[in-house]
Design goal:
- It is a single-pass type IV membrane protein.
- It comes from Aegilops tauschii subsp. strangulata (Goatgrass).
- The chain has 456 residues and is α/β, with parallel strands linked by helices.
- The protein has 4 domains: 163 residues, 3-Layer(aba) Sandwich (Rossmann fold); 94 residues, Recoverin, domain 1 (Orthogonal Bundle); 109 residues, Orthogonal Bundle (Recoverin, domain 1), CATH 1.10.238.10; 31 residues, no CATH class.
- 42% of the residues lie in helices and 12% in strands.
- The protein has 18 helices and 15 strands.
- It has a 6-stranded mixed beta sheet, sandwiched between helices. Strands 9-11-10 form a 3-stranded antiparallel beta sheet. The chain has a two-stranded antiparallel sheet with strand order 7-8.
- Helix 9 crosses helix 10 and helix 14 packs across helix 15.
- It starts with 13 loop residues before the first strand and ends in a 14-residue tail after the last helix.
C-alpha cells in the first residue's frame, strides 16, 4: 500500500512560520530552501517566501514566514504563530544555549499563547555540530516527552544543503497528515475515532461479509485508494507481515479487521501517516475523521410547519440491522450490542441527554425494535443531518431523498382534515408539580420513580 501523490487534503496551501533565537539560522534556512544555495548576505528577516505546489508530492504550495525574535517584534511573532498551520522552531547545533532555550522559553511560550499548530524542531548549522555531542535522538527524546506538541525534529545545514527541503516537507506533512487525530502517542495505539472509521471502511470493502478481505477485495481496496493494483506477491507479503506480528490478523479467508487495523498502526509507527490519511480521505473523511459535507447534507430545506420523517425503505433497513446486531435473539439490543452497532460511527449519538432516556428499555437495559425505531424517528425529527450521517456510518448506502421524506405543511393537513405524518410533536406544559414529567415517563413504562426536574 502506498500513498497517492495528490492533494487529497483539499487545502489551498500551508503556512509555515519559522521562529527561534537570533542567529540560529532562520533566514538562511528560508533562502536555502527557496534558492537551493547558501546566501552570502541574508536580511535580518526574509519576506514571505512561497514554495510552489509541485515542490513536494502532495502538490500543496507552502508559504514560509520568517520572523524576528527581537522583543519589540514579539506581538507580531505571536500573531504569526497563531495564524500558522505549522511552526518551525530553530536552534543552532553549535550553540547549546539555544537548545536549552527550547525548553526554558520557546516551547512554554507557545503553550502560553495556546498554539494549536504542530511544531517541527530544527537544529540548524549541522555542519558546525561537535561530533562529541549526543545524537539527535538522545538530545530530543526528553524534550519531546515533555512537549507532545512537537511533531518531529530534524537537523540541517543551509551551507551544505543537508536536509533543507526535508524541514519543510515534514512541516507540510504535519499539517496534511497529522498524527494527533489518528494515534495516541502515550498509549501507542490508534485512537478510538480512527478505529471506528477504519472499521467502517473495512466493512464496506468486505463485499461478501465474511469478516476478512480476500485477495480480490484487498486489491479492489488498493485500486480505489491508490489507483494501482497489488501484485500477488505484494498481497502475500502484506499478509505475511501481519501474520508474523499478529497471527489473528489473517485467516483462511484473508486479512481480518484486526490485521487491517494492525497494518495502519504499523504505517503510522513507521511515519507513513499519508497512507492512512489517503485511505480515510478516499472514503470521505475530513481531518476530524468525520464524513465531509459533500457526503452529509448540513441542512434540510423545509418550512417551519414541515418535519422530516424516515421512509419505509430506511425503516426496513433499520429493522435489518437491528436483527443483525441482536446477537442473543432476545428481540432487544443490549447496551453492548447498541455500542457495536454504532462502532463504525465517530461516537454513539444516543449517549447525549437528548436521546438517552427517550425510549423504553427492559430490565436488562435492552432496547426493543419499537424503541430503536422511535429513537431514529426522534433524531430525524430533531436533527435530520445528524440522523442521515449516522445512517451512512452504520452502512446505509442510499441517498438523502431515499432515506427521508418531508411532510406536507401543517396548514394543508388542517385544510384537508387529515395527515400523512407518522411522528407528531406535542408540547406538554402546566404548573410545577402537576405531573407533567410523570405523565410522559408513564408512556415509557416508568412508574413511581423519582424524576429530575426538567428546566427548558
Amino acid at each position: 500500500m502506498a500513498a497517492a501523490a495528490a492533494n487529497l487534503a483539499g487545502r489551498p496551501g500551508v503556512r509555515v512560520v519559522v521562529i527561534g533565537d537570533p542567529g540560529t539560522g532562520k533566514s538562511s534556512l528560508v533562502v536555502a530552501v527557496a534558492t537551493e544555495q547558501f546566501p552570502e548576505n541574508v536580511p535580518k528577516v526574509m519576506p514571505h517566501t512561497r514554495l510552489p505546489a509541485d515542490y513536494f508530492p502532495d502538490r500543496v504550495p507552502i508559504t514560509i514566514v520568517d520572523t524576528s525574535s527581537s522583543p519589540e517584534q514579539k506581538p507580531k511573532l505571536i500573531a504569526e504563530c497563531q495564524a500558522a498551520d505549522a511552526v518551525v522552531l530553530t536552534y543552532a547545533c553549535d550553540r547549546l544555549s539555544t537548545l536549552d532555550r527550547l525548553s526554558s522559553y520557546w516551547l512554554p511560550e507557545l503553550r502560553r499563547i495556546q498554539l494549536k499548530a504542530p511544531v517541527i524542531v530544527v537544529g540548524c548549522k549541522l555542519d558546525l555540530r561537535d561530533d562529541q555531542q549526543n545524537s539527535l535522538e538522545q538530545t530530543m527524546a526528553p524534550i519531546m516527552q515533555a512537549f507532545r506538541e512537537i511533531e518531529t525534529c530534524i537537523e540541517c545545514s543551509a551551507l551544505r544543503q543537508i536536509q533543507v527541503p526535508e524541514v519543510f516537507y515534514y512541516a507540510q506533512k504535519a499539517v496534511l497528515h497529522p498524527t494527533a487525530p489518528l494515534f495516541d502517542q502515550e498509549a501507542q495505539s490508534l485512537k478510538p475515532r480512527c478505529v471506528r472509521a477504519l472499521k467502517r471502511i473495512f466493512i464496506l470493502c468486505d463485499h461478501d461479509r465474511d469478516g476478512a478481505l480476500s485477495d480480490v477485495e484487498l486489491n479492489d481496496f488498493q485500486v480505489r485508494c491508490f489507483s494501482a493494483p497489488l501484485q500477488p506477491t505484494e498481497i502475500s507479503g502484506v499478509k505475511r507481515v501481519v501474520q508474523e506480528k499478529m497471527p489473528e490478523g489473517v485467516n483462511d479467508s484473508g486479512l481480518t479487521l484486526t490485521g487491517f487495523l494492525f497494518l495502519h498502526a504499523l504505517f503510522i509507527e513507521k511515519g507513513r501517516l499519508e497512507t492512512t490519511w489517503t485511505v480515510l480521505r478516499k472514503f470521505g473523511y475530513d481531518n476530524e475523521i468525520k464524513l465531509r459535507d459533500e457526503f452529509i447534507p448540513t441542512s434540510v430545506k423545509r418550512a417551519p410547519d414541515q418535519t422530516v420523517e424516515l421512509t419505509n425503505e430506511v425503516i426496513d433497513y433499520l429493522k435489518g440491522i437491528f436483527n443483525m446486531f441482536d446477537i442473543d435473539n432476545d428481540e432487544a439490543l443490549l447496551p453492548s450490542e447498541l455500542d457495536d452497532l454504532f462502532s463504525t460511527a465517530p461516537e454513539n449519538p444516543w449517549t447525549s441527554d437528548l436521546y438517552k432516556d427517550s425510549a423504553e428499555r427492559n430490565v436488562l437495559g435492552g432496547l426493543s425494535l419499537e424503541g430503536f425505531l422511535s429513537k431514529w424517528a426522534l433524531m430525524t425529527l430533531l436533527d435530520p443531518a445528524n440522523s442521515f450521517a449516522n445512517l451512512v456510518y452504520v452502512g446505509y448506502s442510499g441517498d438523502f431523498n431515499s432515506a427521508f421524506t418531508i411532510t406536507r405543511k401543517r396548514r394543508v393537513d388542517r385544510k384537508k382534515q387529515q395527515t400523512q405524518r407518522n411522528v407528531f410533536q406535542c408540547y406538554v406544559f402546566g404548573p410545577k408539580g402537576s405531573g407533567k414529567t410523570a405523565l410522559l415517563q408513564s408512556f415509557l413504562g416508568r412508574y413511581m420513580m423519582h424524576f429530575p426536574v426538567f428546566t427548558p
